[in-house]
Structures are given as C-alpha cells and as structure tokens.
Write a structure and sequence with these properties.
single chain, mainly beta, 4-stranded antiparallel beta sheet, about 50% strand
Length: about 200
C-alpha cells in the first residue's frame, strides 16, 4: 500500500489515498422483493463462478409480530432445504428508554448437526409495527466446493418487538461436501410482508 501524507487543507483536496490489491469487487447477480411472501428463494446464480456470495437484506418487514428471520440451504436446486448445520449466535441489545442493555451468547438459537432453519435473530423476535424492520447480510463461502464444509456468517440489525435495537451475529457451517446451489429465507411464522434481498458475488 502506498502511503500519502495529508496536510490541513482537508481530505477532500486529496487526489490519492494509496491503493490495495485483492480486496475484491461485488458483482450484482439478482434482487428479489418480498410482498406478503411465504419465503424468498434463490435457486439460480449460486454456482462455482465466485468463491463468496453475499445476500443483503434491506428493510425486511414481517406480517406477524415477534417472529424470527431465518435461512436454510439446498444441495438439490431448491427441491429440499434441509442441509445439516452447526452454528453459534450472540446478540447485543439496548432499549429505547436507555434502561436495559445486554450482550450475550444465545445458546437457544444455535444448531448442532440440525437440518432445521437457522434463525438470524434471537430472543424477543422481530416487531411488525409499521416502522419496524430488519436489515443486514449473510455471507456464504465457496458453496460449490466439494471438498470442504460450507461456512456462513450473518449480521442483522433489527427492531425488537419490545422496542429494542438488537444486533445479532450468527456463524456456522453447512456440514456437507455437496455443492450448495439454492438458499431460502423465511419467517418462522407468517409471511414476509415487505423488503428486498440482493445477491452479489465477490470477485
């Protein structure tokens, strides 16, 4: 990396701030919009083209109060979403009154060799008020690799139904050496009322 010294004329006057290589570029693949949808599924675009894929969630709004945003994976093009997973979860939260704050490991939301959906939010559940929603991302690494398990990492910022700001991190692996070629997002109960999910590949 080249280093440039800045004077007191302001950063906006700088014409270069150095360069790095191999940080990767995002390549847009597709976007889906939920509208009273039972699920949002990506059954194409996940293949050996990229070593990493990122799903971006934008203002995901549930139809039902106190629900959990979740993901599952498929190795058969979306005929079944039942890949075995092991994962870990922790959440930081703070209420609007400024009286309660917490940071903790959420063992009730982990999976241990389970084919169940992976919840991407934790205790309390997402609110469905008119101004309540969730935004965040999920990274899926090298899904077409047939030697190793498939790692995933999710970070979601969401409006807890009890008027908390909540930030949940989930990480784990799909315990399969088969290629993962489809991903599905759901609420654990009720529909996805609104929101968009965009899929990118990382070069």
């Amino acid at each position: 990396m080249a280093i440039i010294k800045l004077n007191n004329r302001a950063v906006k006057d700088a014409t270069a701030v150095g360069s790095t290589t191999q940080l990767g570029n995002l390549i847009f693949i597709s976007k889906q919009t939920a509208s009273s949808s039972a699920s949002v599924s990506f059954t194409s675009g996940i293949d050996s083209t990229y070593k990493e894929y990122i799903f971006y969630f934008n203002n995901i709004h549930p139809a039902t109060n106190d629900v959990y945003w979740s993901v599952n994976f498929s190795t058969d093009g979306g005929s079944n979403y039942n890949v075995t997973k092991t994962s870990t979860t922790f959440t930081a939260s703070h209420n609007e009154a400024g009286t309660v704050a917490s940071l903790g490991y959420e063992d009730a939301f982990d999976l241990a060799q389970s084919t169940n959906v992976q919840w991407l939010v934790s205790a309390g559940g997402l609110g469905n008020g008119n101004d309540e929603s969730l935004s965040g991302s999920l990274h899926l690494f090298d899904p077409s690799n047939t030697t190793f398990v498939k790692h995933f990492i999710s970070n979601c910022q969401w409006y807890h139904n009890g008027d908390y700001s909540a930030n949940t991190y989930v990480a784990g692996y799909c315990n399969t050496t088969s290629a993962i070629n489809a991903v599905q997002f759901t609420m654990h109960s009720g529909n996805i009322d609104a929101g968009t999910i965009s899929l990118y590949g990382v070069v």
